[in-house]
Design goal:
- This protein is α/β, with parallel strands linked by helices.
- The protein has 12 helices and 9 strands.
- The chain has helices at residues 3-13, 30-39, 62-73, 78-89, 103-109, 111-121, 140-145, 160-168, 190-203, 217-226, 234-241, 246-261, and strands at residues 18-24, 47-51, 97-101, 125-128, 149-150, 153-154, 174-177, 208-211, 229-232.
- Strand 7 (174-177), helix 9 and strand 8 form a beta-alpha-beta unit.
- 49% of the residues are buried.
Length: 263
């Protein structure tokens, strides 16, 4: 059982939904980013999604793109991202960390070397946006053999046939992208999300977590009511971009996690 599996089992036993927060590793700089990440569990975060900075983030809107650029400008790399996770693990050995990004930096490092380093750093799951199921042999299957969950995205345009393929080698949870388009582009609607979540549950026994378009405590609660968890990214990253203090960022995160946990 991975940390992700254990977290969902614990939440289910306590009748709670998962709150997942996304932050870009190294934004606005390494030390501040680590400070924020270390504070997330106390702010009610159940699972941390750690963004891997990349020069061509095709699924991300301007908010996440700019966060990635700030991190890259500050010297953030894949290795530095894993160093950040390692530093976090010195004080927290239970909160799951999912590394979310694109395949190019991993490919450049080499899959075997990356998986060894990621395991040592305490990474629990991977979301690699640009690796479809047809490429499972590339990273998905080796990752799962190394004990790291490989988490797939499903979208409003994923039909039933494709959904079966998406779910085939997925583990940890399924990430449902609630809108068509990039991050931060529109707001999620619980009425639209509910039937989509039900359809995904028919294809897999995994928890379904919904992200993209969630930006307020009220929206967090509404989405959590129809799913197994909710992800917030752009709204949190916007707080960091605005120069808010770590305490203010974490206080904002707490309002979102309270929303999800009240569902």
């Amino acid at each position: 059982m991975t940390r992700i599996d254990a977290k969902f089992a614990d939440l289910k036993a306590n009748g709670k939904k998962a709150f997942v927060s996304y932050v870009m590793a190294g934004d606005p700089d390494f030390d501040r980013s680590l400070e924020i990440v270390r504070g997330l569990p106390a702010a009610g975060v159940d699972i941390i999604e750690l963004g891997l900075p990349f020069t061509d983030p095709m699924a991300d809107g301007p908010t996440i793109q700019l966060a990635g650029q700030r991190a890259l400008d500050g010297g953030m790399t894949l290795l530095r991202t894993l160093e950040l996770a390692t530093a976090f693990r010195k004080d927290d050995d239970t909160t799951p960390i999912v590394l979310m990004g694109y395949y190019n930096p991993i490919y450049s490092m080499g899959v075997e070397k990356f998986l060894k380093a990621a395991t040592a750093a305490g990474i629990d799951g991977l979301i690699v946006v640009d690796l479809p199921p047809e490429e499972d042999v590339e990273l998905c299957i080796p990752a799962q053999a190394a004990g790291i969950n490989f988490i797939r995205l499903a979208t409003p345009t994923t039909d039933d046939k494709r959904l079966k393929r998406v779910a085939q080698n997925t583990s940890g949870f399924v990430y449902y992208v609630s809108i068509t388009g990039i991050t931060g582009a529109a707001e999620a609607d619980a009425g639209d999300v509910s039937p989509a979540v039900a359809r995904i549950r028919e294809a897999t026994g995994l928890p379904v977590v919904v992200g993209f378009g969630v930006n307020t405590p009220e929206k967090s609660r509404a989405i959590a009511e129809v799913a197994d968890g909710v992800v917030v990214g752009s709204a949190i990253v916007s707080q960091i971009a605005a120069g808010k203090s770590t305490d203010d960022v974490l206080a904002f995160v707490k309002t979102l996690s309270d929303g999800a946990h009240s569902a």
